Amino acid sequence: MNFIDNVAVRLNKKLFNKAASRVVQTPPVQINTSSGLAILSQAYDADIYLYLVAAKSFAKYIQPEIFIVVDDGLSADNKALIEQHLVNVRFVPRKLVPNTHCPAGGCWERLLSIADVSQDYYVVQLDSDTVTVRNPEVVADALARNVSFTLSTDMGRTFISTEQARNLAMTSDSQHVQVLAEQALHTVPELANTQYIRGCAGFSGFARGALSRASVERFSQLMGEKLGKDCWGSWGSEQFASNYLVANTDNPMALPFEKYPYWAPKMNLDQAQLIHFIGSNRFTSSKYTQVATEAIENL
Questions:
Q1: 90: which strand partners?
Q2: Which of 86, 140, 207, 231 could in theory staple to 227 by disulfide, Cβ–Cβ 3.0 to 4.6 A?
Q3: Cβ pair 187, 163 in contact under 8 A
């Protein structure tokens, strides 16, 4: 990224934060105490406005029973702000999540928390850099049928066998943990006759009772033994694990990319219901600010 691009990114980020801060002027969300839905996110101070926009824009259409926040160092003031706007909130300090079998950090405590909570709730994992712009009826259908879902991607629109995943991954010479794990998955006997999707953990749903802490820990143990501790502990292994675990629940759904896209320049958002503003493109234009502003106005 050149100097001019860096300046543009910093300016767009500043404008976004100013626009997104207006979310604190909107009324608290409506809670549905009988929905059986928990919205779980990992949050920290720098993304407080992003998180509130993500949480409130989603809850406008689908009301949860509870918000669960994996607290990655939130200040007391920001926790109070979250409670004011999201009404029913449980904070789970990230560093206090029991974790003796999975890598530390890299969102693994978030995934373990999902497993713990999913015994009692349908859990939607909602990243702070998402904005719900229309009624997400495909997600509502998944909740009604108690089936899991994940975001699809350009390279992952359907669920495939581990052998197919290996064959696709073998066309890449990347040393990223996700690619290496996809290449290795089929060679782990306990996992060979299962399925996979190269989805995105930024917005995913876990059916009630579909995930257990033991299954997460066992999967991590197997892949860690295969790839080595250092590789498996690198950033991205949690997303790979989330993709795999969703794929191997009963009748999972891959959300249609056109309705649940990630933002990229020149992306057609005419059908979008929820947009994921991934880091690489988040502030390269004013689009995130525009979408967040419209969502806030609709609250």
A1: 68
A2: 231
A3: no
Q: How far apart are CA 198 and CA 214, in angstroms?
A: 23
* Burial classification of residue 138, based on how many CB atoms lie within 10 Å of its CB (0-12 exposed, 13-18 middle, 19 or more buried): middle
Q: How far apart are alpha carbons 103 and 205 in whole angstroms?
A: 22
CA–CA–CA angle 249, 30, 38 (5° rounding): 20
Helix (H, G, I), strand (E, B) or coil at 273: coil
Phi, psi of 241 (to 5 degrees): -65, -45
Start-end of H helices in 87-236: 108-117, 137-145, 162-169, 177-185, 213-227, 229-232
- 275 bridge partner residues: 131
Q: Are 137 and 273 in contact (CB under 8 A)?
A: yes
Answer positive or negative: Cα dihedral of 107, 87, 120, 196: negative
Mean pLDDT in consecutive groups of 10 residues from the start of the chain, 299 residues:
73 94 98 97 96 98 98 98 98 97 96 97 98 98 98 95 97 96 97 97 97 98 98 97 98 97 90 93 92 98
Give the span between the Cα atoms of 284 and 88, in whole angstroms: 35
Tokens (6 digits) for 97: 């999540």
Pairing of strands 89-93, 66-71: parallel
Q: What is the pTM of this model?
A: 0.95
Of 50, 80, 86, 1, which is closest to residue 296 (Cα–Cα)? 50
Question: Alpha carbon of 191 to those of 186, 220, 221, 243: distances in Å?
Answer: 7, 12, 12, 14
